[in-house]
């Protein structure tokens, strides 16, 4: 197991796609920080460090969806997996070693994000929210990154063709981002819309009309759960102002669902991989 | 060249990703027409025209074709077909041009599927009639046809120069999304006002009390400088995704636009073919 892990890690560090992802993550975070500083200077409205930090959250899905399938696809296309099985490693340990090494890779990408974000401190100041919020937000970020790693590792191990798996997972990542933001936007619709009408040049509020786009009942519950469970949705909710609209941010559900997804996908993946026909 | 084209077209129609792309494009078009139909049925008092849909399909062509070309050209490399073609005496230029022609044809097929569904919807009365006069629609179709060919030329450079199928597929797909982002960014930058006027907002809160908020205007920092503006305007004319979006939102039909797409196609193809000519095919 430890041999497999260290072999995977040395391959990750040598893989061009990983270095490319680190560079992209660095540029992307620095760009967000620069945008935040520009905003602070031009609009003169306060913006906190965490706003710039957690802005990137929904996009992590895309980074991981490029890195993991591209790295793991090589293992199939060069027959590395076959060789590992031939020298006597069990399928379970091979799978687990891949998951753990991808998790380490993702951890390094997150570390790059964290360190690059620190460059904003001289201009933007330290985090402004209380410590508990900040720590729980970082924890949620780490947990949903682990869940994403488990999901992408699962599909990378299931799909033998490297290009099919890479393209499929990029679209899956985009699908998750679009689904999460659609649910979030629908939830943000107000229940009643009030129009301002002019009567004798004086402004009056019209009677509140029910908003046709507002959803309620079971549909609302499903949407709320979806936003809280989908990793990009958790990223969106970090920036969300709960006082502005009625979308509950449920940190406990987020953490539990991320941990559950990590375990479910890894165990299911190990189980299916044991029976998979590796040509 | 004729033989190459024949072989490539035969492979095109057998390609699973292309078939999938045709199905996806058809479904997207049917969905767009269906949405207009539902909207017209539910809000009969509003006159809803399907004009906004005319060029929307071309945007999808940019994404679908990137997935298709990664697989189509990537297979050529992966299965060693390119080497075989060279071995039996086809020139590298002929291979490049044959691929360009086949991929352009694939984009045009996807492009016209959209119009077929759209006009079917209009003809059978599912949607209202177009407000845009027929001659304008013909112009839009003409201009956007060159845009989808430019898409094929752009992705062809990536797919022909990167030998790894998965790397070129991923690069092409990410590029197709990047092109949409670039189009949106340029649109945003060009629509910035130079100055913000002084503004007073009167808001009414839930208790019915009015409150005045005064915002002082000033110079807009996001307003592009003279040079930046020129670059953005040029890119707006040059890039296919920008041309399509510009046509959607401003209906500015400029008959010089195909010249820009054609020059882009020509420059990229010349450069791509030149590099491919010297490429080590192993």
Question: What are the main properties of this structure?
Answer:
heterodimer; A: 279 residues; mainly alpha; two-stranded antiparallel ribbon; two-stranded antiparallel sheet; 4% strand; B: 282 residues; 4 strands
Description:
The complex is a heterodimer of chains A (279) and B (282). In chain A, strand 2 and strand 3 form a beta hairpin. Chain A has one domain. In chain A, 74% of the residues lie in helices and 4% in strands. Chain A contains 12 helices and 4 strands; from the N terminus they run H-H-H-H-H-H-H-H-H-E-E-E-E-H-H-H. In chain A, strands 1-4 form a two-stranded antiparallel ribbon. By secondary structure, chain A is mainly alpha-helical. In chain A, helix 4 runs parallel beside helix 8. The model of chain A has no long low-confidence stretch (mean pLDDT 84). Chain B is mainly alpha-helical and 282 residues long. Chain B has one domain. Helices cover 72% and strands 6% of the residues of chain B. Chain B has 10 helices and 4 strands; from the N terminus they run H-H-H-H-H-H-H-E-E-E-E-H-H-H. In chain B, strands 1-4 form a two-stranded antiparallel sheet. Chain B has a two-stranded antiparallel sheet with strand order 2-3. The longest helix of chain B has 32 residues. Chain B is globular, with a radius of gyration of 23 Å. The mean pLDDT of chain B is 85. Classes of the chains: A mainly alpha (279), B mainly alpha (282).
